[in-house]
Structures are given as C-alpha cells and as structure tokens.
C-alpha cells in the first residue's frame, strides 16, 4: 500500500449485510470507517456499539441521525449503500452529486434505466461506481481464468450452469424486505440470480448473450406487499457459437451455490462460487473423465484434480469481502477510476431485465438490448 491517506467510509443504513462489511472495512489496511447513518442517531449508535463489541475499529465511527447528513459529511470519501433496491437510486445519485464514491449492494436498481441514471450521475461527478459482488474480488477467479484458458482442462466452452438457493424460514417469507415488492421487487432473481448472471458473464468474458428466456416458477409476497416477488426463477442465456448458460435461483430450495463450466475436453465444478465454505482455501475441481470400451468392459474413469488458492472464507485480511473494500479504496485513494465496474453492473441488470420480461410473457425468447 502507498503512503496515501486511507479512504474514509460511510455506511448508509444499518442492514444485516453491512455487518459483514463492517469487518471488511476494518481488515482493509487502506480504509477507515468514519460514520454510520440510520433514521435516528440512537439507532445508529446502537448499531455501532453492537458491531464494535465484536469487531472493533480503532476509532469508533460517528453515529449520524439521517441519510442526508451522512451524504453531506465532510470527512467521508466513499459511501456503501445497502439500502433496499426500491429506494437505492435516489440515494446513490445524491451520494454521487455530493462528490462521494458509490459502492452499492445488488441488484443495483429495479431496472436498467435506473442503473443508467446512477452511472450517469457518477460519471458526471467523476466518482467511482461499483456493485457489491464479493466473489469478483476473490483470488480464485484469476486462477479459474488461467485454467479455462489453458486449452486442455475444459477446451472450448459449450455450457455454463449454476444454482444459488436457500430455504427461507417462515418468518423470512412473512417479514423480510426481500418479500416486499416496493422494497425488493426482483425477489430471488435480484437477491440471488444477480450472482448467477454475473458468473456467466464473467466466464464469457462479458460477451452478452444474443437471446434469453426466463421462467417464473413461483412467486409470493409478505402480507403488506403490493405485489408478488419471484420465489423461484430459472433462465437460459443463448450466446453466439452455440454456448448456453442455464441458472436457477430460489428462496424455497435448500442451500446450494454451485457452478459448472463444461466444454469439449472436460468440465470445472465449483461447489461454493458465491460464498466460500468455511476454511482457509477457495477451490474448484477440474474433471477430465475418460470412457473406454474393451469388449464386455466399459470403463468410466474419474480424473479429477483440485485447484486451490490460499484465501480465508471470511473475517480475514485475505477474504473476498476485504479485497472488495481494499480494491475500491485504492481506486478512491489514487483517483484512477475504473469504468469496468459500472459497465458490468449495467450488463448484469440488462440480462436480469430481459429474463424477467421473458418470464412475464410466457417464456418467449427475448433479444438482449444494450
């Protein structure tokens, strides 16, 4: 790290996911948490004290009693926004217009038009925009890219498949914001499917598919939700060159987060592509099965090798969430903005929009618009 001063962070809201990133900011050597905002200073202080009791920042962050006050705070360089998707655009644009860099949770907006407005505001203000997809910052991805590009492990890619799901308890279905169409209108598609779509895009070098289909398998909403949100969703992406990608996301199916990349010579299996399982390594399996027929004997041989990088799953300076904040903070510190991050956020949102449009129209094929 350079001798530049640390990036000074503010957290806009007191959500559960922000607790994990509380620790990530603490572990990133080039970042410091300055303030946390809630609807009241008392709630912000309670949140700070709860987190400080478990993961203490050297200087206790300041509690701020309104979102607007944090956005205007003179000692903040970047703002992390874990607010609900339905209200995110208003605050993301306000943060950018205040000259502060924007890191927001996914999905970045209810639709691509909103995301375009956020990105435009960031570009006009000369600040960085990035979504909070942690696995993009894992050391596993460069290793995986090297394997994909070696020409032998997978060969020519033909198929990508992934699933991200968890079995939501009854109180989640009745109370959680992800079951309210005004707060999280995309339901499981926005909360989980964003990762499936991003992974497929990453594998394909961010080449957009030509067409997509979507299927809304089940939907519901909590008692006070104006409309239903997706509970189970599946989709297909059709790329040029006959490459396809299928995905499934759900609030109703037991926890899984696997991804497969198949090709002409073998396949790669990742059992935990979103949240690495607890441990000190992030890994994947390269499988090159061999089938041999010898008269009456049919031999199916398993040739699997494990590839791993040293990276703790959570709460460590090497974890992917720490690297997210470290990488973002370095962009802020150096002033070298990276247009790659807003570009791939918009592409992910465009795919999500197209899949949802297909699902709401009987699963028809939809051409992806740029």
Please supply descriptive tags for the structure shown above.
370 residues; alpha/beta; Rossmann fold; Dihydrodipicolinate Reductase, domain 2; 9-stranded mixed sheet; 34% helix; 29% strand
For the sheet with most strands, the description reads: 9 strands, mixed
How many DSSP H or I helices?
10
Distance between the termini: 37 Å
Helix fraction, binned, reads 25-40%
**Mean pLDDT score, rounded?**
96
CATH homology-level superfamily of the largest domain: Dihydrodipicolinate Reductase, domain 2
| CATH C-level class of the largest domain | Alpha Beta
Instruction: Provide the CATH architecture of the largest domain.
Output: 2-Layer Sandwich
Strand order of the largest sheet: 16-13-12-11-7-10-9-8-17
Beta-sheet strand percentage?
A: 25-35%
How many discrete domains? 2
**3D shape:** globular
Radius of gyration: 21 Å
Could you describe the 3D structure shown?
A nine-stranded mixed β-sheet has the order 16-13-12-11-7-10-9-8-17. Strands 3-2-1-4-5-6 form a six-stranded parallel β-sheet, with helices on both faces. Helix 1 packs across helix 9 and helix 4 (85-97) runs parallel beside helix 5 (112-125). It is globular, with a radius of gyration of 21 Å. It is built from ten helices and 17 strands. It has 370 residues and is α/β, with parallel strands linked by helices. It folds into two domains: 7-135, NAD(P)-binding Rossmann-like Domain (Rossmann fold, 3-Layer(aba) Sandwich); 138-319 and 348-367, 2-Layer Sandwich (Dihydrodipicolinate Reductase, domain 2). The mean pLDDT is 96. The protein has helices spanning 17-27, 41-54, 67-71, 85-97, 112-125, 140-148, 170-175, 187-203, 320-334, 340-359; strands at residues 7-12, 31-37, 62-64, 78-81, 101-104, 129-131, 157-167, 211-220, 229-238, 244-250, 252-263, 267-270, 281-287, 290-294, 297-301, 304-310, 366-367.
């Amino acid at each position: 790290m350079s001798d530049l001063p640390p990036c000074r962070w503010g957290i806009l809201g007191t959500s559960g996911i922000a607790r994990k990133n509380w620790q990530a900011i603490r572990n990133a050597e080039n970042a410091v948490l300055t303030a946390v905002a809630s609807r009241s200073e008392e709630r912000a202080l309670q949140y700070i004290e709860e987190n400080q009791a478990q993961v203490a920042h050297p200087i206790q962050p300041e509690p701020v009693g309104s979102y607007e006050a944090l956005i205007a705070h003179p000692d903040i360089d970047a703002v992390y926004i874990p607010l609900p998707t339905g209200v995110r655009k208003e605050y993301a644009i306000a943060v950018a217009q205040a000259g502060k860099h924007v890191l927001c949770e996914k999905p970045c907006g209810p639709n691509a038009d909103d995301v375009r407005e956020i990105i435009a505001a960031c570009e006009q203000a000369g600040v960085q925009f990035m979504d909070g997809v942690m696995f993009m910052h894992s050391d596993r991805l460069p290793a995986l890219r090297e394997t994909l590009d070696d020409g032998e492990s997978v060969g020519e890619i033909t198929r990508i498949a992934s699933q991200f799901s968890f079995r939501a308890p009854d109180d989640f279905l009745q109370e959680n914001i992800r079951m309210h169409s005004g707060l999280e209108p995309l339901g499981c598609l926005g909360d989980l499917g964003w990762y499936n779509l991003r992974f497929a895009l990453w594998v394909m070098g961010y080449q957009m598919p030509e067409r997509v289909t979507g299927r809304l398998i089940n939907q519901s909403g909590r008692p006070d939700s104006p409309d239903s949100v997706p509970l189970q969703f599946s989709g297909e992406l059709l790329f040029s060159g006959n490459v396809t990608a299928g995905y499934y996301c759900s609030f109703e199916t037991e926890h899984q987060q696997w991804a497969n990349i198949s090709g002409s010579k073998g396949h790669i299996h990742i059992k935990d592509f979103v949240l690495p399982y607890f441990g000190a390594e992030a890994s994947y399996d390269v499988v090159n099965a061999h089938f041999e027929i010898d008269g009456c004997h049919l031999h199916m041989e398993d040739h699997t090798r494990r590839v791993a990088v040293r990276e703790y799953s959570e709460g460590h300076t090497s974890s992917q969430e720490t690297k997210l904040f470290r990488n973002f903070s370095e962009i802020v510190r150096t002033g070298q903005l990276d247009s790659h991050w807003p570009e791939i956020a918009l592409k992910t949102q465009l795919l999500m929009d197209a899949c949802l449009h297909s699902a709401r129209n009987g699963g028809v094929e939809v051409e992806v618009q740029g």
